[in-house]
Amino acid sequence: NEPVSKIMTSEVETVHLGQKLSEVRRMLANNPYHHVPVVSGEKLIGLITATDMLKLSLAVYGVDERAVDVMLDSQHTIESVMTKELTTIGVKDTVRTAAEHLGEGQYHSLPVVDGDKLVGLVTSTDVIRYLLAQY
């Protein structure tokens, strides 16, 4: 019955609709995370995943990164790529609740919210690490 706040990442890098999609690509390429919440102020409005970006990427076809960025920015926006209908979890919900949602296998992260405000992100990896620490 531990609160999800015990295992969530609370310092989450986010993007907003005015940013370029190439910035998201670089964030995902240069960091160990695979999910970038999209916010308007502090309000969560979407999520972009590494899988979303892979669907758009031309890098596998031998195009250099600058060309990929130009193409991404000219053909797509953050809003057109992000998932808008999100399953979220409340900051006071339990690790068990997070595990139940993640265990459904539809996604690998849950934005943690307090009302509409993004306060963290919990991933399937966070839940697995928590469970390993119990045994």
Rg from alpha-carbon coordinates = 16 Å
Mean pLDDT score, rounded?
A: 92
In what order do the strands lie side by side in the largest sheet?
3-4-5
**Class derived from helix and strand content:** alpha+beta
The general outline is globular
**pLDDT < 50 runs, ≥5 residues:** none
Strand and helix order: HEEHHHEHEEH
Roughly what percent helix?
25-40%
Let me know the number of strands.
5
The rounded distance between the terminal residues' Cα atoms is 16 Å
**Number of helices in the DSSP assignment:** 6
Proportion of β residues?
15-25%
Major sheet summary line: 3 strands, mixed
What features would you describe in this structure?
The chain is α+β, with helices and mostly antiparallel strands and 135 residues long. It is 39% helix and 21% strand. The chain has a three-stranded mixed β-sheet. The chain has a two-stranded antiparallel sheet with strand order 1-2. The mean pLDDT is 92.
Descriptive terms for the model:
135 residues, alpha+beta, 6 helices, 5 strands
Topology:
Blueprint (H helix, E strand, L loop, with lengths): L20 H10 L4 E6 L2 E7 H7 L8 H11 L2 H4 L7 E2 L4 H9 L5 E6 L2 E7 H11 L1
Parallel strand pairs: 3-4
Antiparallel strand pairs: 1-2, 4-5
Helix pairs in contact: 1-3
